[in-house]
Write a structure and sequence with these properties.
Helices cover 35% and strands 20% of the residues. The chain has 360 residues and is α/β, with parallel strands linked by helices. Helix 1 crosses helix 2, helix 6 runs parallel beside helix 9 and helix 10 runs parallel beside helix 11. The structure holds S-adenosyl-L-homocysteine.
Length: 360
Amino acid sequence: MEQDEGQRVDVKGMSRQELAAFLGQLGAPPYRAVQVMHWLYRRRCDDFQSMTDLPLELRQSLAQRATAEFPRVLECQRSQRTGTVKLLLGLTDGEAVECVLLPYQYGWSICVSSQVGCALGCTFCASGLGGWKRNLTTGELMGQVLAAARYLDEAGRGERIGHVVVMGMGEPLFNLESVLAFLQLAHDEEGLGIGYRHMTISTAGVVPGIYRLAAEGLPITLAVSLHAANDSLRSQLMPINRRFPLDQLLRACRFYIEKTGSRITFEYLLLHGVNDRPEDAEALATLVRGLKCHINLIPANPVPETGLRRSSPAEVRRFQNILAGRGCSVTVRRQLGAEIDAACGQLRRRFLAGGGEGEK
Ligand code: SAH
């Protein structure tokens, strides 16, 4: 179980069974676990003293031995145009992570971070610029959803969060155990009650992690950040490709599709003059031929430090048309966050540098 510096156990990352066992240690019967979960996940209450249907004695021992505290909102950016909300959340050790709320037709989709910083050093990404700090705990993964849900309640926008996407800062497959425990808790009907088909894990291509995830047999959507269809360019853009080159990666993807029955989403960032030529589109179509997959084209969010530029709308359209002409299922990602530092890691980076604050 996860403990904070004061040796208090974090209950928000606990599965129903773990919570029941912990409450058992405090002398409470198992059904109390569901009551505590309702306070956390339905009423977004993180203060044990306010959990009024628990006996006073239990509330007191919980307050002494445990914490449920949601991370604090350090900064918030809202896009007036698209409704996207980006939150910077403070963790107990002084670190900060980002999560993004994206509106969709029937509620919200939340994009959470899996690590503080990132070890991968992809050349186009802001998260890797400051290196890797640590993995997030299950409680910190769930804390992002709970803090965001509370934020929405307070803003009068408390529609349901119906999708969870692990596509924020960090590489989720390098923190798979906590990410899986988090998604299982998100799936629990006493937790967030979200179906696995409404969950996505995005990876830069950590091949052993893909096999481990496939072994769970859950219909979680796997998104693979491809960004190039040949090894030399991909290794330049994403150093992890040197460890797990494309043939290994595609073999793992094929296995994942067979094992889970779900299709894979390939993310392809479009960088002007780097990977957006017609021959790049042809190579991509050839690479994924015969795979049950969808291609998501992402006009890159500019990160000033990288010097890379996004493709023009005409270049994006040309790329998309070539893929569609080759029979690929392909869409262009909606630009929901560009004007609010929504490129991975940008808000945290600006915050750490002591940059601007407040709402946009
Ligand atoms: N490590 C995982 C998840 C985090 S990155 C992965 O690589 O998939 C989430 C997504 O944001 C990835 O597809 C990543 O390539 C993309 N991304 C990173 N920098 C970006 C930028 N500047 N503009 C648009 N997308 C970016």
